[in-house]
Structures are given as C-alpha cells and as structure tokens.
Description:
The structure holds two protein chains of two kinds. By secondary structure, chain A is mainly beta. Chain A contains one helix and eleven strands. Chain A has a single domain, classed as Beta Barrel (Porin), CATH 2.40.160. In chain A, strands 1-2-4-7-8-9-10-11 form an eight-stranded antiparallel beta barrel. In chain A, strands 5-6 form a two-stranded antiparallel sheet. Classes of the chains: A mainly beta, B alpha+beta.
Amino acid sequence: MKRILALALLAAVGAAGAAQAGSVGVSVGVFGGLSIPVLQDVSTSSFSPGDAFGATGSQYGLRVPVHAIPVVTLEPYYAKSKYKDRDETIGGITYTRDGFDGKSYGLNAILGNPDGSGFHFFPYFGIGKTKLTRTGDEINKTGYNFGLGLGMSPAQKISVQVRGEFAMVATGDTSRKFTNATVGLTYRLKP
Amino acid sequence: MKRYAWIVMALGLGLISAGCILTSGQVQISFDLPNFTASSATGIDGTTIDLNTEKEYKDNKDKLKDLSDLAVLGKFTNNSSTPVNVEVWMTTTPSTHLTESALMADPTRVKVWGPFQVAGSATKVIDWNASAQLFTVAGKAALLSEAKGDGNFTLYAVSPASTVYDFSVANGALVLVIDVGI
C-alpha cells in the first residue's frame, strides 16, 4: 500500500511540475475484455498444458492516463472482473464452486504515450490493490501487472488500445494469476 | 533508447526477485471418505486420513505454502425424525474413538467444520460454497498444520448439540486446494 501511495505521490508531483510547464496530457478511457485464471485449482495428476488456464472471465474498467513527465505516462485505473463458476464431479456428485468477483485499483507506468498518433506499441507495468471474493473466500492483497499494448488513433483526441497483460495478486509466498486481453477507447481531454 | 533499456532491465530484475510469487499455483486434491454413521446410541465412526497416500499431495508437499480453499462434501442422511447439526472434528493424532464422549476427552481434538443442519428424516447434499463457509479458523489452521506436518489425522462426524442423533454420510470427500510454490 505504501508503494502505491508513493507512486501516486510521484505521479502527483510529476503532474504538478509538468502542469506548471504547461505540458500535461490528460485522457480518460474505458476498457473491457477477457480475463483468464492461470494455474488455479488445477489437478496435477491428470494435468495437460490446456488445464493451466481456467474458464474465461470478463474484465472492464476505467483508466486516466496522465502524460506529465517525459518517457513515462502514469495511468491510474479501476477495474472489475467476474470469473465463471466451476462444476466438478467428486464422489459421483456434481458440485459447483463460485468463481471470483474481482475489484482492483492502482497505477500503471507506461513507457511512452499510449494516446500518441499513428500505430505504436507500449510496454507497461502496474501495481495496485486487488480484492477477489467468492463465498467463503476473500483475498484482498497487492496486485501487480505487466503487459504490452498497441495504440492507434483513428481520429483527433481519440485513441483505441489493445492490451495483453499478465496480472497477479500476491498471497504471501504464492499468488493468484490471470492473463487479460482488453480493448479500450480513450478520449484526450488535454491538451 | 538507452533509457528504455535501463527501465526494461529494472523491470526484469523486479520480476525475477518476485521469484516464487510468479512460479506458483493452486492445486486441488480430493480425498474420498468412506461411508460412515454417527449415532448417540450406537456410537461414532472415525476415518483416519493419511495425506501421503495421495500422489498429488506427496508430489507437492515440500512446496506447500498455504490452504486456499477447503470443502467437506457428501450426502448427509438424517435417520432420526429430529433435525441434526452435523459437525466434523479431527484428532491431530490418529485415533479410534467409538463414542462422542471419548472423542471430546481427546486432548488433540479440534472442531474443523460445521454445524451443517439436516432436517428430520431427510437427505441433503451439501453445496460446495456452503461447505467452504463452515470451516472454523482453528480447524483450518489444524488442517494446514497437518498438511505441512505428518499428514496423518482422524476425522469424525458428530452432533454435540443434539442429545439424540442418528445420521450417515455417503459419497463423502475432503477437498483441499493448496497453494504451492513451483
């Protein structure tokens, strides 16, 4: 949590400094797509590579990229996710276990400007807080993500981004992991 | 461009230092339980579990970090006309108690799960989600300790709150989802 606050503070200081210089770029965007659990609740006795990925869930949210310092764009985000229930037959009876509902917020650091003109790739990483809940189970821990995005600008002030990322929620010495693929639409507010 | 290279290298180092957090997963292990009965008049059955008999547990025991999900599953039949509140207790040392009073006198006993209510003369299959909520904090800790320890313990189903009870459990299973560092 302290790291998130430190990053947020850094972003604010950077934004304030750049604002004085009159060069802050601020956008607002929405995104949505797929989120797939990785290596969760697997059975190792009959494991095949395809079992590493759980049932596909969904994710959507809001991003506010702030381009205030050279090279790096800082992007606060808020996202919600929903994972599918899982059916399993044990002892001849089929049971259903709830999938997680997730909420997360945090800050991404993007190399470059995702709203820039033309086609461009941008790597990024982020840190935040993620809460995963299902009946009888709650995880509320620090989350990390990193990935690669492809941005394009079909019209002035508007950009479309496709992102693929790997996200994880640290649970002590282990983690719950997800791969996400999202499409986002961003509108540039400033300049 | 050099500036980007340094940032990417720093990122890489950060990910490597994350180590086990990245290379980990959740492995599900199911232990089939024998059918058993519990009666205030004729006595109780215990079932001794040796986790080491399960290959998935044996393969992952040294990498086990935590328990991430638990469930007691099965079909509960109340053979009495009065409602029963089923509880699962364990003795951390394997035991062969034949009565509830003998179980309650065992210093290693821990209430693991329950109560799960079954109406009089009824059969009820427990829902996984409901079962996950019925684990006690002490029971979860005891199971984790056993999973990290010798993995040998005995489970009993009883109904301490009832004066008279008679129920049976069929198709039972204990499901553990363990956090393992790979």
